[in-house]
Amino acid sequence: MFPVESTRRQGFLPAALLLASSLLWADGLAAQNVLSKALQDRVQENPHTTEADVEAGAKVFRRSCSLCHGADGTGGDGPDLTRGVFRHGSSDAALFRNVLTGIPNSGMGGIYQPDKSIWQVVSYVRSLSRGGGEEEVPGDPRRGRLLYMSRGSCSDCHRLNGSGGRIGPDLSDLGWRRAPAHIRASITDPAESVAADYRTVEVRTNDGGVVRGVLRNEDRYSIQLFDEFENLRSFRKTDLAVIDKPEESLMPPLSSFFRGRDLDDLVAYLYSLRPE
């Protein structure tokens, strides 16, 4: 979800918090949104579920949610929403609360919309569900694991349950966050959808040196990046001739390494990865 929407909401928090003392839910999240009547009344079932509501929710979703969850809800920076099971609660009330307030420590902010629009987003998200939870995929995850550890050398860059490289995204719960199609595309054409934290940054120093990596921090005077060898590098901008940020991934396309059965097996393994 757009963090900007969350920021806009902050302007309402002081007044909201003054009213919260008598309205807190057991989990306390209502304190952030007492302006929401649905939260105050603890509404449990979605009152806006018509086809028109779904269409209206789709418009809000495309505007406020698709950047992270993908235009079709199959995931991006945010989790895959099409399996109909949600890690932070699958009830109507839980989905409403999470869309409205965001989810702490997940990177997901809430969206500032009237209650009706939030319920309509919930209806649209429900409409994305395949209804079967897990998606069946071809391939042998056990053989895929061997490919992951050997031919692909994936662990050189990616972390799994605390082990492995850090230059690429942590894959420990990838199967929860991404649909199989998204995982497959990330292997064969990683530049198609690159998480913002893992886009390539290349700097050229005034003496001709070139360093590539992923951005970790930048301000008016300096830039810090994690280079291809996992070294944190810091540069003063006055020492740099060029700062280039192409819309691409450090990871090369692996379609020549993995195809056919091998690709199926690797996707099956990565899709099997769930939170411990």
Report on this model:
The strands form three sheets. Strands 8-7-6-5-9 form a five-stranded antiparallel beta sheet, with no helix packed on it. It has a two-stranded antiparallel sheet with strand order 1-2. Strand 3 (159-160) and strand 4 (163-164) form a beta hairpin. It has 276 residues and is α+β, with helices and mostly antiparallel strands. The model is unreliable at 1-32 (pLDDT under 50). Helix 4 packs across helix 7 (115-128), helix 6 packs across helix 7 (115-128) and helix 8 packs across helix 11 (260-271). The protein has helices at 3-9, 13-19, 37-40, 51-64, 66-69, 92-101, 115-128, 141-149, 174-177, 180-188, 260-271; strands spanning 102-103, 108-109, 159-160, 163-164, 200-205, 210-218, 222-227, 232-236, 240-244. It contains eleven helices and nine strands. The two termini are 25 Å apart.
Gist of the model:
This protein is of the alpha+beta class. The chain contains eleven helices and nine strands. It has helices at residues 3-9, 13-19, 37-40, 51-64, 66-69, 92-101, 115-128, 141-149, 174-177, 180-188, 260-271, and strands at 102-103, 108-109, 159-160, 163-164, 200-205, 210-218, 222-227, 232-236, 240-244.
Gross geometry: globular
Q: Class by helix and strand content?
A: alpha+beta
Please trace the helix and strand order, writing H or E for each element: HHHHHHEEHHEEHHEEEEEH
Q: Please tally the helical runs, counting DSSP H or I stretches of 4 or more residues.
A: 11
Overall mean confidence score, pLDDT: 82
User: Considering DSSP H and I runs of 4 or more, what fraction of the residues is helical?
Assistant: 25-40%
Main β-sheet description: 5 strands, antiparallel
Number of strands: 9
Instruction: Trace the largest sheet across and list its strands.
Output: 8-7-6-5-9
The Cα radius of gyration reads 21 Å
Unreliable stretches covering 5 or more consecutive residues: 1-32
